[in-house]
Specification:
- It is built from three helices and twelve strands; from the N terminus they run αβββββαβαββββββ.
- It is an alpha+beta fold.
- It has a seven-stranded antiparallel beta sheet with strand order 3-2-6-9-10-5-4. A three-stranded antiparallel beta sheet has the order 1-11-12, with no helix packed on it.
- It binds flavin mononucleotide.
- The site of flavin mononucleotide has 18 residues, from β3 and β5.
- This is NADH-FMN oxidoreductase RutF, flavin reductase (DIM6/NTAB) family.
- One of its GO terms (molecular function) is FMN binding.
């Protein structure tokens, strides 16, 4: 297998690993809200309560997110497919096109998520062409909605067969 084929297989195998979808938000140094769609999110530790996600070095918000002292992870609900696309798209004002408010501690919170983890930056770790951001969970909003699922570049609500 040559390098090109290896990359194709890597993308196919990883794309065949279903995930949820999050939108991660923070506030830029100039006070403006920033956010992006992320599915590299995972839990890390219970004590202390840590989560991680990774950011591509080419993302325009890279410097802001790797330096943000606080950020919020929104686990998207099944009916938030449009929000998932909005926060991954270019040339459109993301926060002009969704409902959100600033939290008490100055982080943008988008309405309608299944759950929100309010985090402080714990550490960042190098990870090739990405950087891994580890956050400590400080506060949790648990809205107990069904999640949005992502698989092979498509997103959808959870199938009925998952319900009891
Ligand atoms: C479902 C989905 C998951 C994504 N996950 C990540 C991720 O984990 N890390 C990342 O850096 N970009 C991820 N992206 C891409 C970013 O959302 C996208 O590159 C970014 O919002 C572009 O921002 P920019 O135009 O400001 O550079 C994902 C996109 C989608 C649609």
């Amino acid at each position: 297998m040559n390098e090109e084929q290896k990359i194709t297989h890597f993308k196919e195998v990883m794309g065949n690993y279903p995930t949820g979808v999050t939108v991660i938000t923070a506030t830029a140094p100039d006070g403006s809200p920033v956010g992006m769609t992320v599915n590299s999110f995972a839990s890390v530790s219970l004590d202390p309560m840590l989560i991680l996600w990774s950011i591509d070095k080419r993302v325009s918000l890279y410097d802001i997110f790797t330096n943000a002292k606080k950020f919020a992870v929104h686990v998207l609900a099944g009916d938030q497919g449009e929000l998932c696309a909005l926060f991954a798209s270019r040339g459109i004002d993301r926060f002009e096109n969704c409902e959100w408010e600033m939290s008490e501690d100055g982080v943008p919170v988008i309405k309608g998520a299944a759950g929100v983890l309010h985090c402080s930056l714990h550490t960042t770790v190098g990870g090739g062409d990405h950087r891994i951001i580890i956050g400590e969970v400080k506060k949790i909003d648990n809205h107990r909605k069904d999640p949005l699922l992502y698989h092979r570049r498509k997103f959808n609500a959870i199938p009925d067969s998952f319900h009891e």
